[in-house]
Automatic annotation (TrEMBL):
Subcellular location: Membrane
GO CC, alphabetical: membrane
Protein name as it appears in the record: Aromatic acid exporter family protein
Domain Integral membrane bound transporter: 33-154
Record's bilayer topology term: Multi-pass membrane protein
Keywords: Membrane, Transmembrane, Transmembrane helix
Transmembrane segments: 12-37, 43-61, 68-90, 96-118
UniProt cross-references to Pfam families, sorted A to Z: FUSC_2
Source organism: Nonomuraea zeae
Amino acid sequence: MRTRLSDHVRERLSTFGLMAPSIAQCAVGAGIAWIIAMELLGHPHPFFAPISVLICVGVGLGQRLRRVAELVIGVSLGVGVGDLLVGWIGSGAWQIALVVALAMTVAVLLNSGALFVAQAGSSAVLVAALLPGEGAGGLDRMADALTGGVIGIAAVALLPASPFTIAAKHLSGVLDALSTVMEQAAEAIEKRDVDLAAEALEEARTTQAAVEEFEAALETSKEITMISPLHWHRRAALARYETAAVPVDLALRNARVLARRTLAALGEASPPPAALAEAMREVSEAALLLQLELGAGREPALARQALLAVAARERPEGLGFSAHVIIAQLRSVVVDLLQATGMEHEAATEALTPLDEPRDRQPR
């Protein structure tokens, strides 16, 4: 229990370390946006300015530039509809319902983005419920939203999170998952253990979330290197993660099929040979090598060499149907990971040992 609690604390601290720059961006940006809107623009209650910073920067991963545009336009739409109708029909329960319905309807017709629609509706609520008597015009609120958006982008540029760290952490999770699936499948074959094979399959089925998180992290990392001059020098290292993104996703998909066929193969009369488990374990280790080399900002030469050694292996003989499928998927995983190291698809495929014709098949 104590070990599990310690692991949980370390995981939370690691997550905080990753998110700390975004928290600082939100805090500093919100304060600066409030000061600028009050002192320079002369708005007495510019709450849209700090809110815009929070929505723009956030503490998660996503496309900040798009969020700024959706935020400003969404606020403008909500404020415009709210100001127009509240001055005519007044404020109350049914008026709020009508204002929100109209603002969100127009937003959906213009752009179905969730942030855009939600911001239009929430801005209309604020205008209709809280601000009708304060005399602040819609243009003032739109200016506050734009101010917050600009400050948010400046905070990302001047107080940036490390794009390399973000990408490395999330790709590490993907490659760890791939390595674990391959290792568990190999152990299941060695021990002829159906339960271990079932665990490998269950592990494989949970990996898609890690892939999606990595894809979002990579988009954020690319955005930071575009916005922030402080991280322009990271573009070359980040390009290796872009190269690895699609092939690693494909490798995990093939690993899921491999795990499923491993479970099926252990129920057949001729289970997979130990040599197949050894090849799986080598692929597992190569995935970890790829993780370490990319994390160190190096060309993944060692991982490529290890994968080429697996690709050059001879195919075991006397295999059952499921074992043949496992080999096909293993070869696909090897090709995918070779592409993740930077090899072209054709070169990676040519590195595989050619599949021999079946022995019982005579040429005509």
